[in-house]
Each structure stands twice: as structure tokens, then as C-alpha cells.
Automatic annotation (TrEMBL):
Pfam families on file: Methyltransf_31 (PF13847)
Protein species of origin: Leptocoma aspasia
Domain (Methyltransferase) ranges: 56-185
Domain of life: Eukaryota
Molecular functions (GO terms): protein-lysine N-methyltransferase activity
SUPFAM superfamilies reported for this sequence: S-adenosyl-L-methionine-dependent methyltransferases
Protein name per the record: EFMT2 methyltransferase
Catalytic activity: L-lysyl-[protein] + 3 S-adenosyl-L-methionine = N(6),N(6),N(6)-trimethyl-L-lysyl-[protein] + 3 S-adenosyl-L-homocysteine + 3 H(+)
BP GO terms, sorted: methylation
Lineage of source species: Eukaryota, Metazoa, Chordata, Craniata, Vertebrata
Gene Ontology CC: cytoplasm
Alphabetical UniProt keywords: Cytoplasm, Methyltransferase, Nucleus, S-adenosyl-L-methionine, Transferase
Amino acid sequence: YPLLSSSPNSSWDAAYERELQTFQDIGDTGEIWFGEESMVRIIRWLEKHKVPLDSSVLDIGTGNGVLLVELAKSGYMNLTGIDYSPSAIQLSEKIREKEGVSNIKLKVEDFLAPSAELSGFDICIDKGTFDAISLDPSDAVGKRELYVGSLGRVLKPGGFFLITSCNWTKEELLNEFREGFEILEELPTPKFCFGGRIGNSVTALVFQRK
């Protein structure tokens, strides 16, 4: 991650501004924060569960929007990406144009204070945004509560929430999302071995809104 300064927003924005410049210079999409395999894991889950291709999908903290491009290429038609960094949304728009996919809506939004039109989604996906909010030095606990409240507003009852985290264990995430969500399954993620103990560097869970 970019180092989080006292204002995480500004450092994320600076990181995306650099990537935007690089993309304009050489057409490189930049860092995919969670790598290829986390995108494949999400798309496989949607396909395995025969999630209809016209389901409305929200990518929370879309970054460079590459996951949405991959979803579009897999046939998903109703895709929205939000990010509070205008540079990230600009970068996503450029990548969307380059890839020639038209069915992706992109918006600058603060998920902790979402606009009224952000609602009724069948699927919400988060890869690293909840982590970033959790690292905010100013009132991380309050921000996590706001996040859970926002998720309850934008996701339909019965809708699915797929979260990929490298900061939180399964037990911690179950605790964070206990209000209004239930766990459906844990997705397999790469294991690493440290001092003879096997742990996961990444946790990926699917919740359903009650």
C-alpha cells in the first residue's frame, strides 16, 4: 500500500495520480492491489453460484477498475465502481475506454457517506477498502461502524458481500459484520508458513445480508 499519512485520502489520491500519469505515458494499468488471483477467486465464486449476469454489482473502492473490466469480460452487464479518489476514477475511466467496455458506471463517492442513488445492489465487493479504512488513524472504530451501516443501506436484503482482506482474520471479520450479515462461506486463499505455524496472509469471505 502507499504509506498512510495523517490523511489517508491524500496519499491514496497521490498514488492514483502517479498511476494515472503512468497510464497516460505508457498505457500501463499500474498496481493491482490484491493481484490476479483474488479477482479470479471472486469471478469463480459468482460463476459457481450462477449469479445472473444482469445482477447489479458494486465495487467498493474500485481503484483502477480492473476487477470491473474482468467482470465485464466475463459477461456481467450491470457494474458500478466507486472510489473517493478522483484520480482513481479518472484512471478507471481511461482503462475502461482502452479495454472497450461500456457497461461500467464509475463515480467519485465516499462509501462512509454514500449518495442516495447508491442502493439496491445484488452484490458488493471489497478488496482492501475496509482494510484501508481500518488503518485510518482518526477514529478507525467509528469509520468501521459507518462502513457496516453504509453496506446495509446499499446492499439488498439477501444480497451478497464478498470481502478480501489482508488485515483481518475470519473471526475478526465475523465480529465486524455481525450486525445484519451472516457468513455464507470462506474462500480458499494462499497459505504461508511462519515459524512452523501455518497462517493465511489473505482472508476472503462471502456474507449475505439478512
